[in-house]
Prior knowledge:
The chain is mainly alpha-helical. Helices cover 78% and strands 1% of the residues. A hairpin with a 2-residue loop joins strand 1 and strand 2.
Amino acid sequence: MEQKRSTFSGRLGFVLAAAGSAVGLGNIWRFPYLAAKYGGGMFLLVYLVLVMTVGFSLMVAEIAIGRRTGRSAIGAFRALNRRYTFIGYLVSAVPFFILPYYCVVGGWVAKYWAASTLGRGGLLADSGYFDAFVSRPIEPLVWFFLFLTLTALLVLTGVEKGVEKVCKWMMPVQAVLSVLVAVYVMLLPGAGEGVAYYLKPDLSRFSIRTVLAAMGQMFFSMSLAMGVMITYGSYMKEEVNLHTAVRQIELFDTGIAFVSGLMVVPAVFAVAGPQALDTGPGLMFVTLPRLFDRMPGGHLVGTVFFLSVLLAALTSTISMMETVVSILQDRWGWSRRGICVAVWAVVLLAGVPLSLGYGPWSGFRVLDRHFPDLLDFMTNQILMPVAALLTCLFVGYALGPRSLIEEARLKRGEAAVFTVVIRYAAPVCILLILLTSLLSFFGVLQI
Length: 447
Ligand code: PFF
């Protein structure tokens, strides 16, 4: 017997849950770093154009596919055209790969938040602390376990009671916290230079790489090409205006990324100078704790900051796990509780080698690469673009854009943009990303 599908209670619930998925470590850690590296204001501009065209069209397509079919990725593609079910499998594979990795980093954030709350901010500010922490065999595993278990418990409570309720209060809180920290940081001595660096378009730093970096970031940040938006679309009520919802999700996602840049880039300038922008993954875990340690009231600011990152990461992992659970539920009709426990166990098993890969097993290499980096490359640079490309081609040519345009009730101008992007612009851009990533992976191209 078919179970009644859960739904989000209304547009606000849907928008906040989808925005919760979109806003995550990608916005707070990755976006500021990329913006600073690839031309400040110029990167912002390119990113904005991409979000409003390619991002908009793909998000509309995914949510419309989900709502029209009332199924998560595999069932959705099968319902639309049986021959293309394989795209559903491919799309569904992405969150399976990202979830363990994301939970490991979520565990680090949880640790930093706990340590800041307990007044150990000084310890975090030590230059070797981050490396020493991730190298330990047990402690990062314990935090990973806690973070993953919390995610599973929230997913277990269901869509309307768990996922929606959590996002409904977490998202606004997170937005307010980010703005507060950004304002505080911008008032620090030396921060002005960072603000200018972040906002002023520097044409000399603009290149094709700016576009590629912005595009890759856009897919990850908007949680596209991973089945998440298809699943969330399947929980969306008929009467909710889909295209307004997408605009609001984009506004949330881009807004938080922008504010995060105002939080991180000036902070780095104030505490360590522009050369520290190259710290990469360490930026959030190394430079910022040093800033919090030095500034007056830094204990409180640090606690608030890591809390906001923790909430953002949690609403993203909830969406990934919800997607995986919903796919299995639709496909095999198992009980939600059983699936949650099974997914929790699989992610736990997959996360252990990943977590150890940053510590005692960091010397272990696959294809001559540090294996957590290889996994990151395979999912972000290969699997996701391929999934996005196939989705566009499917919607553009096999299914035809018309049915989704009707589902989303796009106006004439928007429908034209949607068609052009899905049929031509997005496939060309995605092929470009794929090609450059592959060439750079094999050392043919330096980017
Ligand atoms: N969009 C999230 C971020 O920017 O951090 C990441 C993410 C969420 C990736 C959900 C994948 C996913 F299924």
